[in-house]
């Protein structure tokens, strides 16, 4: 029988350092594949299906956006993550999608920051939602920052999130001027990372959702010679944050295999999500369960 995991059970099961190793292993594996996701709309809602395969397994994430749910007391976004044995078709694992998505996105960011030199100094996080929470949870575990700053348009949310990670809530401009590493995890429709305010040598990770979300301004790109991305196709087709005419683009998988992303005055990583990472977190959870139960 497959194991069923709630979001809270996923949170208890994940080993942040081990997850980084598993995500890196999957990203380095040239046999891991993930076709373009299938999406459709019906009755005012949106559904996406994201398959991937590798290392003897299939992973499939099915996630939907249901605008009427908040009025019903239900989550706006709901989804499930499945892990299937590619040899037998056995369903091995089924989990709520929110926590696995948060963990795997933050783990990919952590790998990018390691490559770009964003693992020390002052960490600044823009946003106070689910992705901001998971990034703080993972990054403060695997790296040692001297200070943690949080900015949100809702001051009380920034204060609550910062307090959980020994940080402080600050203003938008103060964060951009002070942080050595900036993580933007928002649903903003106009840029929240302003290149003119960033300190020289700053590292930026933008993990905002696809259009109409927009987090990086033109000045940020102009100061970066290259942008590291989770997938070239995904970022260029789904996001307005990266302009090929302004910067070179290198995928995270390519960088982990040795391709150089030339440094400018600042360094930038942009992600919109890839099913390859869903396979990585599903395998991590499955292996953690096997070790726990052995």
UniProtKB/TrEMBL annotation:
It comes from the Archaea. Pfam families: OCD_Mu_crystall. InterPro entries: NAD(P)-bd_dom_sf, ODC_Mu_crystall, ODC_N. SUPFAM superfamilies: NAD(P)-binding Rossmann-fold domains (SSF51735). This is Ornithine cyclodeaminase family protein. It comes from Pyrodictium abyssi.
């Amino acid at each position: 029988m497959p194991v069923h995991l709630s979001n809270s059970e996923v949170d208890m099961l994940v080993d942040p350092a081990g997850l980084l190793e598993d995500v890196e292993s999957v990203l380095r594996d040239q046999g891991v594949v993930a076709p373009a996701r299938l999406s459709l709309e019906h009755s005012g809602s949106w559904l996406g299906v994201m398959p991937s395969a590798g290392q003897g397994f299939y992973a499939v994430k099915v996630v939907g956006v249901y605008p009427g749910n908040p009025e019903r007391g239900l989550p706006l976004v709901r989804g499930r993550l499945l892990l299937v044995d590619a040899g037998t078709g056995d369903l091995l694992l089924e989990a709520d999608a929110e926590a696995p998505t948060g963990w795997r996105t933050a783990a990919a960011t952590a790998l990018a920051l390691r490559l770009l030199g964003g693992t020390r100094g002052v960490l600044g996080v823009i946003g106070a939602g689910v992705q901001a929470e998971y990034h703080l949870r993972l990054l403060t575990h695997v790296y040692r920052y001297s200070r943690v700053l949080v900015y949100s348009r809702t001051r009380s949310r920034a204060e609550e999130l910062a307090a959980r990670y020994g940080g402080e809530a600050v203003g938008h401009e103060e964060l951009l001027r002070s942080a050595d590493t900036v993580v933007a995890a928002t649903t903003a429709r106009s840029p929240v990372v302003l290149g003119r305010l960033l300190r020289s040598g700053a590292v930026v990770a933008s993990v905002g959702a696809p259009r109409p979300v927009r987090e990086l301004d033109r000045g940020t790109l102009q100061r970066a010679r290259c942008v590291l991305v989770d997938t070239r196709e995904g970022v260029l087709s789904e996001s307005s944050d990266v302009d090929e005419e302004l910067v070179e683009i290198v995928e995270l998988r390519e960088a982990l295999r040795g391709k150089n992303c030339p440094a400018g005055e600042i360094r930038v990583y942009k992600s919109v999500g890839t099913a390859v990472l869903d396979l990585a977190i599903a395998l991590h959870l499955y292996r953690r369960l096997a070790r726990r139960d052995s």
